[in-house]
Design goal:
Number of strands: 0
Oligomer: single chain
Shape: globular
Number of helices: 9
Distance between the termini: 27 Å
Length: 202
């Protein structure tokens, strides 16, 4: 499967030709899974329970993460030749795009990509895994396994991308485990992605 995805990646213009159809396919699959299961919607993070706490923690806990992202970019600029001479905050240059394209991408990312990915990885994988596992370590195991699966889907791009997806995914998984509400991780994902990709420019 990964070989096939790599081939499409090579002949396509960019990774969106793979990630968008793949994401939509998984979305349809999980919708059928939710409807056919006997679990309540809250098992999949689709609930208003703890929504205030989830939203607050999504903002507050992610601010230090955003600061770490900026700090890592500063270290890369000073110690890696590939980043030498690049500005700390790149903004539009980070996406190599004009303002209209940049804002369009940003809105699509925040309002569609981030919530959809969190629904799939946290609501579709982590939540049901917590119900399935019987170990007293079921929560960390669910976080680990769901993020390994999610990161594996990105290996057609590169090993580095897979690792970059896995590391923040563990944080999102931990954040989700505190409230089991998708609102908090949606906000956290949108903030981390916007800072890392569209502002700092990794």
């Amino acid at each position: 499967s990964l070989d096939g995805l790599k081939y499409i990646m090579n002949v396509g213009k960019n990774s969106s030709y793979i990630t968008l159809p793949l994401t939509l396919a998984f979305f349809v699959f999980f919708i059928f899974f939710i409807k056919s299961s006997n679990f309540p919607l809250s098992t999949f993070g689709l609930t208003l329970n703890n929504w205030k706490r989830a939203v607050l923690e999504g903002f507050v806990f992610t601010i230090p993460i955003a600061a770490v992202i900026v700090g890592v970019k500063w270290l890369l600029i000073h110690y890696l030749p590939h980043y030498a001479g690049r500005p700390l905050i790149e903004g539009l240059a980070a996406m190599n795009a004009d303002p209209k394209t940049w804002w369009t991408f940003l809105f699509i990312y925040i309002l569609l990509v981030a919530p959809l990915q969190e629904f799939l990885s946290r609501g579709g994988l982590q939540g049901p895994l917590e119900e399935f596992l019987s170990s007293k370590y079921k929560v960390p195991l669910a976080i680990l396994v769901s993020n390994l699966l999610f990161a594996a889907l990105h290996l057609f791009m590169s090993l580095e991308i897979g690792l970059l997806v896995f590391v923040p995914g563990v944080y999102f998984g931990w954040l989700y485990s505190r409230t089991h509400n998708l609102l908090g991780v949606w906000i956290a994902h949108a903030l981390v992605g916007t800072v890392g990709l569209s502002i700092v420019g990794f």
